[in-house]
Structures are given as structure tokens and as C-alpha cells.
Amino acid sequence: MAVSVNNQELKGAVLERALAQRLRELLSGVAWLKGWEVEIDPAEYRTGFDIKATLPLPKGGKAELWVVCKSNPRPHQIAYDRTQDFPSPQRNPNRVWVLAAPFISPRMAQLCQELKWGWFDLAGNSHLSVPDAFQLDRTGQPPIHRVPKAGANLSTPEAARIVRALLAPENAGRKWTQRDLQAHARPNVSLGLVNKVVRHLHDQAFIEGLPDGGFKLRAPVELLTAWRDAYRFDRHQRRSYFTLLKGRRLQEALWKLESLTGGHAAYAAFSAADFQAPHVRQPKTWLYVAADWEE
Questions:
Q1: Who contacts 254 (Cβ-Cβ below 8 Å, separation ≥6)?
Q2: Of 17, 52, 92, 223, which is least surrounded by CB within 10 A?
Q3: Phi-psi category of 32—alpha, beta or left, where left has phi over 0 and alpha has psi -120 to 50?
């Protein structure tokens, strides 16, 4: 089914009404949940959140969803500034903070769940959890509003050198400056590109600034996952060859190739995975080979 994407940015009262309507639709999907109420800008609260949903609990009492509406939330806002713009959950287990926006990125959703926040977007993707009541998880709905453009493309070879330097085990816990990072990412990596990638990684809460200047990596596993998702296999030139060698003889021949190239050849795809956990029988052996050695 074709999905229409709205490029008009929603703000203020218009956004709040749209998100309140989406929340009503989500709650309506919980068959047993009756008697709930959704209010926009409830009179007794003037700061902190924009929508309140009151939900009766199966064992008596009520739960509340306190919904903060943002037109274009950024991960660093909830990771670094949550004490101001994103208040911490109260001790009351029946009061749940929720972030709502036209679009919630996977990284933003991940941070919300780390902080025990719920979230939902205008497409209907959501994670809403009320203790001892219900949990509503829904993902995979295509965005119905324009997705914010990424600040940097992590799939390019130059950006990959920057990310690789940050993730290298020997650099764990290191304090960085942009010039330090440029020196580790050479060749062909400009200071301007380092600045662009660093701003993007800070925006996505993969790195954090330090009080005395510089920055450090704060979410290595999450950055590795984002780098994997940005990877483009079709950027590599692919060549196919035939050999009569099999099994051990083929492995020995490829080990010689690795020595010949000085470390510029490596197993790839299924062939690399086979060394960790064999799970696929297939007739091809996949290799990465540096361009200088592909002939």
C-alpha cells in the first residue's frame, strides 16, 4: 500500500492535537481498556508535559501517561538535557513519562526505553508500558511525515575511519579532540569532515562532551550498530572467480593470499561468520581484498 508522506512540519497546538488523536487510536486498540481519558494541556499542569492520559487499572486505581510533545526531538536532548526538557520519571509507578513526535528514530526509541520512558509517533509506532496493566509495542509502520535528514553519512570510507578510531579497543575511555581524531583517521579525512561527523555523533548521543573540553565515546555498542546499519555492501566492486580447490586446500591458499597482501585481505559475509558459528552451507567463499591486490 502506498504511503503519503507529509513534508509540512507540525508545531504547537496543531502537533499536540494530532498526537493526542494518535494516542486515542492506540489506546482504543487495547480491547479490555475502557473508561480512559486523553486531555491536551490539562488545566492543573502548566509545565512539564502537554498531554495527559488517565487509564483505569484492572485491579483498581488509575495510571497516568504524561506526554511530552516535540516536533523534532534529538537523541542528545533526552540523553544530556533530560533534567530540564525531559523530566525523570516520578517514583509513582503508575505515572509514566512518554515522548511523542511526528517521527521517532530507532536511536531515540532506544534511549527512551533506557530511561524507562514510553514513546509513540504519528505513524503509530509505539512503546507504551504501564506496570501491572499493559505493554503496547508496535514498530515497522512507515513514517507519514518527513524523516529528519541525518547530519552525517557513516557509510563513506572517510567517515568509517573516524568511527573505527573511536571504536578501536586500544582507544577505550580515551578523551578526544577533533584534531586528535583527525590524526587517527588519516589519510584523506579533513578537519571539516571530522567536525561534521562529531556533531552528528553528539546529536545522536553516541559521544558526550567533557566539562574541561573535548569529548569521549559514551555508547560504543550502539555506535557499532548504527555503523553496521549504515554500511553499504553495494559500494564495493565485486568479482567472481572459480577454483577447483576445496576445504583445507582452499583455506591454505587463502592464508597465503593474506600473507602476500600484508593483511589487506580478509574473509567476508558468510565465510567470515562461518568461523564464529557455522550456519549456512553455500558454494561461495567471500573475501574482502584491497583494491591494490584485486588482480
A1: 265, 267, 285, 287
A2: 92
A3: alpha
